[in-house]
Description:
mainly alpha
Amino acid sequence: MIQSINFKSTNQYKPEAKPAQEEPPKRSFVRKKAVKAAAITGSALTTLGYLALLSKKQHKGPLQFKNLFKVDFSSALKAIGLATSATAGGLAGGLIADTKDTRKAKLKEGMHQFLGNIITPISIVGIATHLIEKRNLPRTKELLYSGLAAIGGVGVGVTAGNKVASKVNQLIFKEDDTRKVKAKDFGIHVDDIMTWLALTAKTDVIKNFISKALPAVFLICGYEAGTCDGHGKKGH
């Protein structure tokens, strides 16, 4: 005769957990494309705004679009301002278009772009070029020494700037922000070479080229910050 029935086993039954649904590929593709577009658009808009301010100050009369790309960038501060505006716009565009879980990563990358790719290397190149010019060397030697200073500025600036950015991010976000410097970090520093050309240019041909090329090159900084996805990769 059955004395009792144990229903305990039925209470222990747990339905099999359903696998988490992955984001549909089409939606992910669309979002990533939207973030890319927002980052580059934001970077372009703030860059144009900064160029408009410089152009208005440099060229008398009504603001004309063609004069936006006839700005003299012989000052390191102007170059830093241009790069900063491009980075801020790209970062803002990415923050608006992307999901909330990527915001911290974008802000961190923005700090690395600002300190590691803008302030430190451009400042080193600018100071070194100024000191070399004060020595009144023959033009050939001046270009050689300032060119070497530009290359050295990239090496020291990228390494030191990113280390400082990591420390700043650790203080702000209270978490580790170790970022290894890779070959690509040096490869994208066409902007620093362009800045060196801007600071040393004596002919109108080179100055005109720099005034058009430098704003486009600095869009990279904004794009990198705006498309960072938080996994050590950019959103592409």
